[in-house]
Amino acid sequence: MYSQAQAYLVLKLKEAGLKTKPHTTKKSIERSPESHVGAVLFGSETFLRNGSKTYFKDQAGAKNKRRKVFDRTLTFSVIIGDYTADAVEIMLEKLISGLDRGIWVSGDFVPIEVDDAEWAYDDDSTLKAKVAVEVKIRFEGGIYKDTGTGTITRVEIGPIERKGKEPKDGD
Predict the structure, then answer these.
(1) How far apart are the C-alpha atoms of 28 and 17, rounded to whole Å?
(2) S-S: 132 plus which of 78, 81, 142, 149, CB 3.0-4.6 Å?
């Protein structure tokens, strides 16, 4: 999920109008001499145990059970820097409006949410850009375990053994 989410954000940053190669590490963006700059940096990853399950049929028609073992949330920081606040805002709006509701990773839908944004000006930032914005984007996926469902092929029912005395008619 990590590499798919990162590649997706790099693509969306280019589609938003970034003309230079997007940086993917903090060191490379801090060393960059460019004022028109963009980056997709990994922020954090959290796991939360989950036990939900879903039943589905595969392509062959066999019934399966998918258990969501963990909720997995990845957060990335997308940084956009440029000469003016207007240029940064235009790219930010294109980026946000260009995001899909989610992406498909290994057959599972991973919703995308935008958290918050922080603006920085040349004195507040290590970047060469005059104005920059850092927006947090969250991918809410999971770790799944698929199992088949068993089918009963032959059942034998034997006599039921009762303990105690038998009920009489009318009791």
Answers:
(1) 20
(2) 81
Q: What is the pLDDT of residues 30-43, one digit of tens each?
A: 888 888 889 999 99
Q: Give the closest residue to 38 by CA, choosing from 5, 14, 69, 4.
A: 14
Complete DSSP assignment for the chain: -HHHHHHHHHHHHHHTT--SPPB-SHHHHHH---SSEEEEEEEEEEEEE---EEEEE-TT--EEEEEEEEEEEEEEEEEEEESSHHHHHHHHHHHHHH--SEEEETTEEEEEEEEEEEEEETTT-SSSSSEEEEEEEEEEEEEEEEEEPP--------PPP--SPPPPTT-
User: Which of 17, 25, 24, 20 lies closest to 35, judged by CA?
Assistant: 20
pLDDT(171) > 60: no
Q: In the chain, what are the domain boundaries? A: 2-50+72-139
**Reported pTM:** 0.77
pLDDT in tens, 111-156: 999 999 999 887 666 677 788 899 999 999 998 888 776 666 676 7
Q: What is the pLDDT of residues 89-112, one digit of tens each?
A: 999 999 999 999 999 998 889 999
